[in-house]
């Protein structure tokens, strides 16, 4: 009998590894442990020396540059997927960005340019990836992205990323509906606060971590390994009839007002 999560032979693209402590790294580790073949990206030449050693430990077969803000880079990435593998079985989108001046200010004070950039990198890039992955997933597949419960509740200091993540979650549901007939599933995973490099950009994030640890029903923070376990399950055959969900892995934080 096969294990519940057996990803042997499945080809996955992981976008968003910054270091060994990032959520994308935790997911990649779980995918690797379940037998998947992996490719991953780094943002630019400056980031490559930090990502490459992590990717090597995670069994990543190949790395490629991908800054979704640079015209043509995302398209070139999927062309490489096609040339290297001929197809794709799953994808993890774990990137987000907002200009500091907009992220640290009130939502009502956000600039049009700042909001547009945050939406482009954090949300619309997932739609672009879904469109590019679609022809590569001829036998179906799974598209994952990462969100946060600040999308549905006001979380102090989360600010502009709240509306942006709400848009990402809505986009995920539409992706699932539109690509479902082709056997392509889509999910947004919603972890509790985790001390990652990306999260450190949120003002007073350490206070958010402390508050979560003290108040969530399980009274402990989740880890990147917890997120990876859920991601691997969703990608695997056991999750083949689950799609269009926003799934919390947060120790019960989503239960609280």
Written description of the protein model:
- The longest helix is centred in the middle third of the chain and has 22 residues, at 112-133.
- Strands 3-2-1-4-5-6-7 form a 7-stranded parallel beta sheet, with helices on both faces.
- The N and C termini lie far apart (43 Å).
- The chain has 8 helices and 7 strands, in the order βαβαβαβααβαβααβ.
- It is 40% helix and 16% strand.
- α6 links the parallel β5 (141-146) and β6 (184-191).
- The protein has one domain (11-248): NAD(P)-binding Rossmann-like Domain (Rossmann fold), CATH 3.40.50.
- The relative contact order is 0.15.
- The protein has helices spanning 23-33, 48-57, 73-85, 100-103, 112-133, 161-179, 205-215, 224-235; strands spanning 11-15, 37-42, 60-65, 90-93, 141-146, 184-191, 245-249.
- The model has no long low-confidence stretch (mean pLDDT 91).
- α1 packs across α8 (224-235) and α5 (112-133) packs parallel to α6.
- The protein is of the alpha/beta class.
Q: Unreliable runs, pLDDT <50, ≥5 residues?
A: none
DSSP summary: helix tally: 8
| Structural class by SSE content | alpha/beta
- Assembly state (oligomeric): single chain
Fourth-level CATH superfamily? NAD(P)-binding Rossmann-like Domain
Largest sheet: 7 strands, parallel
């Amino acid at each position: 009998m096969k294990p519940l999560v057996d990803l042997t032979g499945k080809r996955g693209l992981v976008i968003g590894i910054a270091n060994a402590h990032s959520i994308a790294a935790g997911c990649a580790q779980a995918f690797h442990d379940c037998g998947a073949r992996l490719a991953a990206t780094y943002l630019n030449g400056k980031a490559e020396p930090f990502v490459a050693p992590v990717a090597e430990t995670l069994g990543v077969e190949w790395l490629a540059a991908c800054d979704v803000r640079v015209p043509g880079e995302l398209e070139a990435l999927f062309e490489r997927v096609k040339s290297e593998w001929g197809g794709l079985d799953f994808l993890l989108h774990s990137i987000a960005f907002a200009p500091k001046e907009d992220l640290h200010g009130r939502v009502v004070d956000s600039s049009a340019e700042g909001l547009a950039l945050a939406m482009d990198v954090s949300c619309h890039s997932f739609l672009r990836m879904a469109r590019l992955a679609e022809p590569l997933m001829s036998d179906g597949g799974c598209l994952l992205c990462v969100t946060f419960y600040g999308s549905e509740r006001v979380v102090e200091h989360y600010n502009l990323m709240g509306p942006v993540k709400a848009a990402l979650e809505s986009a995920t549901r539409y992706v699932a509906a539109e690509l479902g007939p082709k056997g392509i599933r889509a999910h947004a995973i919603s972890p509790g606060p985790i001390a990652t490099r990306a999260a450190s950009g949120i003002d007073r994030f350490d206070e958010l971590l402390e508050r979560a640890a003290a108040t969530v029903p399980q009274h402990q923070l989740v880890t990147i390994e917890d997120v990876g376990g859920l991601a691997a399950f969703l990608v695997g055959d056991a999750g083949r009839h689950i799609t269009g969900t926003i799934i919390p892995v947060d120790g019960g934080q989503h239960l609280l007002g």
